[in-house]
Amino acid sequence: MKDNKKQKRILEVAEEEFLMKGFAGARTVEIAQKAGVSHSMLHYYYKTKEQLFEHVMGEKLQQLKESVATVFMIEDMPVVEKVVELVVRHFEFLSENPDLPRFIINEVIVRPEYAEMLKREALPILKDAVAWLQRELDAAAKEGEVRTMDAATLLMDIVSVNFFSFIVAPILSSVKPDMDFQAYYHARCQENVQLILNRINPDIK
Amino acid sequence: MKDNKKQKRILEVAEEEFLMKGFAGARTVEIAQKAGVSHSMLHYYYKTKEQLFEHVMGEKLQQLKESVATVFMIEDMPVVEKVVELVVRHFEFLSENPDLPRFIINEVIVRPEYAEMLKREALPILKDAVAWLQRELDAAAKEGEVRTMDAATLLMDIVSVNFFSFIVAPILSSVKPDMDFQAYYHARCQENVQLILNRINPDIK
DNA sequence: AAATTATTTAACATTTTTGTTCAACAAATT
DNA sequence: AATTTGTTGAACAAAAATGTTAAATAATTT
Q1: Quick check: A167 contacting B, CB < 8 Å?
Q2: Residue A158's Cα: distance from chain center in Å?
Q3: Which residues fall within 8 angstroms of residue B194, CB to CB, at 6 or more apart?
Q4: Is the per-residue pLDDT at A2 higher than 80?
Q5: Which residues have CB under 8 Å from A138's CB, separation 6+?
Q6: What percentage of chain A's residues is helix, strand, coil (to nearest 5)?
Q7: Tell me, what's the pLDDT at B205?
Q8: Are B87 and B196 in contact (CB under 8 A)?
Q9: Do residues B17 and B32 touch, judged by C-beta distance below 8 A?
């Protein structure tokens, strides 16, 4: 086999385009053109736009799944540090995949079949992660290290502040064209860590 | 004039469709059909899909603008209560417009001309609001009522946790089909208030 | 070298979506 | 009553997007 450099290239460009514009907004001819292959080549490897999209979505969900596994694989350390590590890792994951969440959320809302896919792929592993975090938190709460709290809620807080940091980034930059992304991300990550630390702090409320 | 009930109806349905599916995903014939008017009627009032979309976007940005004004018009009370009020009002606004933010963010990212529109429409008033909040916070910080902090950051925290509560709601419900939205929203709002209160609490860190 | 696989070009077919036109009719306004 | 405005239907045109085909060539594998 020729190792299909072009096929890979098509998929790469398809990812970019679908992630930016969604299924409805992306154009197959544009994908082919940007990938530097002929229009027919695209259909040679992927019969339909839908099929191409499925591959992209499949890869992205896979990636999401792996990222959950990675993000949660934290060696032994005090639970507070673990939570900090969680926030930072999740933030880092997002900084490498800034428009993945927006993409998934949109497609899942617009096209129910992909809600199913998400449910199948990403959910079981996420449930395990929540259960793990809950055990950690409960144990630490008994020692008074953190306040008693729901792991799912904490996770949602983490995801929402991190996620939103990336959602607004392009808007902020359209407002301040000279904005320093590096600095922004750095500051935001710190802010988010701080916010989550307050959240689990046992001395409050 | 006949007071254009149908024209209004078209706009209503167009809002629903564009908000759910975005510009690229929405279909003019479907809009006409759901509005209970003929296909030709749609083009009679709105020459093109783009024009129809502009009306919707215009209205939505207007609404956003007004909501900012409303959300921030808080009578005299201690600043901590003001912040709580802010969170609750913003949450309420979102509960009435659950997919507005997602819509705006998407279109603004995909179509730069609407980033301009957003900048023109919503930004000046938001800047005022941030300035107001900053003054309030600074005054309160001097009295030790809240911790010294950046108003823009606090606002971003508020928006992100509230916003995300609504983003995930449809996903959660696809996971747990029997989920009680009412209860979920109520709990989430409380959680978000709590999170923000921790954030401004002067006794932490 | 032969066979297979990858790739292009360029035309074409199909489908989907948008937009137009026109004749007729209904409703409201003057 | 006459006129303007709203409305439909149905056909049609035009544009945009997807998908197909076949012939020719290049590259790779056997």
Answers
A1: yes
A2: 12
A3: A205
A4: no
A5: A148
A6: 80, 0, 20
A7: 62
A8: yes
A9: no
The pair of structure tokens assigned to B112 is: 């730069």
Of residues B192, B109, B22, the one with CA closest to residue A160: B192
Which residue is the nearest neighbor of D20, CA to C1'? A40
Handedness of CA A94, A100, A106, A111 (dihedral sign): negative
* CA gyration radius, chain A: 20
Shortest alpha-carbon distance between residue B7 and chain A (Å): 26
Instruction: Specify the amino acid at residue B8.
Output: K
Distance between CA atoms of residues A20 and A17, nearest Å: 5
Q: How far is the CA of B47 from the C1' of D7 (A)?
A: 16
Q: Residues A127-180: pLDDT tens digits? A: 889 999 999 999 999 999 999 999 988 998 898 889 888 888 877 777 677 989
Q: Is the CB of A38 under 7 A from strand C?
A: yes
CB atoms within 10 A of CB A128: 13
Taking the C-alpha atoms of residue A60 and residue A76, their distance in angstroms, rounded to an integer, is: 29
Report which residue type is found at A163: F
What is the per-residue pLDDT for A186? 95
Cβ of B167 and A105 within 8 Å? yes
For residue B7, which nucleotide's C1' is closest to its Cα? Answer: D6
Question: With contact defined as beta carbons under 8 Å apart, do B72 and B86 qualify?
Answer: yes
* φ and ψ at residue B178, rounded to 5 degrees: -95, 10
Asked whether residue B48, judged by its CB, lies under 7 Å from any atom of the DNA or RNA strand C, the reply is yes
What tens-digit pLDDT sequence spans chain B (205 residues)? Answer: 445 788 999 999 999 999 999 999 999 999 999 999 999 999 999 999 999 999 999 999 999 889 888 889 898 999 999 999 999 999 999 999 988 989 998 999 899 889 889 888 888 988 899 999 999 999 999 999 999 999 988 998 898 889 888 888 877 777 677 889 899 999 999 999 998 998 899 887 6
pTM: 0.91
Nucleotides of D under 7 A from a protein CB: 5-11, 17-22, 27-29
